[in-house]
């Protein structure tokens, strides 16, 4: 019964953002109502905070995974990949005696077959 109670409590609290003060406040209310003994209070606060931390970490990992999938799907480069390419370009420029350009040059966006097909379906839509 206590496990069901704790799970319900975690779900209702938004355990991902649970703070120690909030957990203590909730547990104190439960003690006042007689739903939890004073002996169980400290243990319950600790368990709630542990579960909250686990859920925050799980959410963080899920976000990292999704961002990685999107990066890969859209062909974006990571900062590490960008820095490596920049270093290579710098070396090539030095070997060729080219001074690096300090300003960003606007490149023409060439539509992909997918974006051209999408634009043909909906001509009102702004090109991406």
TrEMBL record:
Feature: compositional bias, Basic and acidic residues: 118-128
Stretches the record annotates as Disordered: 109-128
Name of the protein in question: Polyhydroxyalkanoate synthesis regulator phasin
Cleavable signal peptide: none
Matches recorded under NCBIfam families: phas_rel_Lepto
InterPro entries tied to this protein: PhaF_PhaI
